[in-house]
Predict the structure.
Amino acid sequence: MIKKPAGWQVRLILAIGVLMTSTSAIFIRLSFAITGHSGISFSIFLAAARLIVTAILLIPSWRNFRPKAHSPQTYYYAIAAGICLAFHFVTWISSLSFTSIAAATTLVTINPIWVSLLCWLWWGEKPHRWVIAGIIIALLGGVLIAFGDSNASQNHSNPLLGDALALLGSLLASLYLLFGRESQKQGLGIGQYILIAYTTAALCLLPLPLFSPQGYWDYPPLVYLYIVLMAIFPQMIGHTSINWSINWISPTIVTLAILFEPLGSSFLGWLIFQEIPPLTVLGGGLILLLGVAIAAIGDNTHQKTGST
């Protein structure tokens, strides 16, 4: 039996995970800046390359993989999670081509709202009244972000498209979390789960860049360095730390901690790119995060009390 770590250790690992995921948007923007490329095609290349490097780093773990240890359905859920993860990266990375770091990273972290709605639709888990209140507040924040981005369109090529892609990326990330939850509920350990999910995601995107003229090649060497850094820091350390933490700490605390990601990304965006979002976007982001926090706390209250 695995010994439960101390509370401070779990909080430290979770904090490191959130900090590492905050660097993802910066590495992506640096790749855009050094190549002059952006848009869907280049975003697919970045997403695919990041996941391929991650899958390569995980190759030694396959030696300990025991496929007969669990039911086939357990692995199906993990594979479905990997597919959702792959296209989450495509849509979210693409969103950074069209809108601000603050807007993209804020909109992509509304997972608790999507999860609450999907659980309601799929399993009849009616959300707590505070979840509904949080959703309404978050929607108001999303409207303010869209309004602020549309008024700042001179700074970004198509902010409304970017906001829509970030929202779609958040939905896909939520499906990834739900499928992953089902897979782990059926007994798949975190190590085997990320092995299957990350590798599946890499295989999904592997052929797609080959349909573009540049494929995987002829980019500046720094771009490949940024891809390796994305695979190590936001993916291997960030995502895996968060997935590990959720086994030892309340999901509500983990969800609330993830809300610091857009703050970290926005700060790094200001520090590196001098990117200062409009006040409407900042205000909308804070309102949206408040709504998500209320929804997350309400969902946790509902789970503990069973009340509606």
